[in-house]
Amino acid sequence: MSGPATPVIEVRALVKRYGGRAVVDGLDLNVAPGEIVALLGPNGAGKTTTVETIEGHRRPDAGSVRVFGLDPRRDGPRIRARCGVMLQRADLWNQARVIEAVRLFAAFYPHALDPGEVLEQVGLAERRDARYRTLSGGERQRLALALAIVGRPDLAILDEPTASMDVTARRATWDLLRRSRDDGASVLLTTHLLEEAELLADRVVIIDRGRLLAAGTPADLRGGGPGERPRLEVALRAPLAAAAVAELAALPSVAATGAPLTPSGQPGVYILPTDDPAATLREVATWLEARRIVPLALRFAAPSLEEVFLRLTGETEAER
What we know:
The protein has 320 residues and is α/β, with parallel strands linked by helices. The chain contains twelve helices and 13 strands. The strands form three sheets. Strands 5-6-7-3-8-9 form a six-stranded mixed β-sheet, sandwiched between helices. Strands 11-12-10-13 form a four-stranded antiparallel β-sheet, covered by helices on one side. A three-stranded antiparallel β-sheet has the order 2-1-4, with helices on one face. β8 and β9 form a beta hairpin.
């Protein structure tokens, strides 16, 4: 029987200091073969420093970093032959044509994809002969993605891959990364789009001040912390009057929790914490029927990844 697969990226107790301050402070991070991992954190959390250390651009002050079991500093050429990198911002020569840039990067790899097919995949086929200076911000992002994947890498490291992209291009990029994952590639990405992490990543890693706060699948993280109550989400066509909101909060199974009814931030949507989901659903349905209110939705909902992120990073902020 074979053992567990060797991680593509293995970071152990990583420490990186600037001016005596630990920007990364004892961080552990793994990426398995064929896995998409999203690295999340507020500005200044240590994401970029962590990624640059994994790429071999920075030397750890303590701890270890291995990529394909190799040292990124000592074995850089061997790693780069199997790795594609997309920076958050990178410029090319203004006069370079799109197809020329992709062909150039393809020439660096022994088993590269067809440059024309890659441009089809990222939605730039019609711009193949355009010069770099004429591309929009979103088109430059798609070109940067094309350059990162044209070498058919075993590992893609992507910094904010869909920044500046419109919704259509963003979802096409997600589909492309899923296909790469399904073909066996691993992906480590940083993003400020929590929806992107929730819909795309197999695992999410949340850090702040260079320390690991949480790691797991999006579903695991959304399961809530210790003592987290189930929540009934009530979506209505229009917001309720204050007196009606007070009546909802006073329903027996809701009031028994001692937790306040929480506005969701969307007009007409209310979140009711409960220790007895079945009773709460009956009481709310009866209350709505008595007032001839037809809800748009009644559903039990876990906290969103955004809520989990804000809770964890907010707790860290409170410690400062």
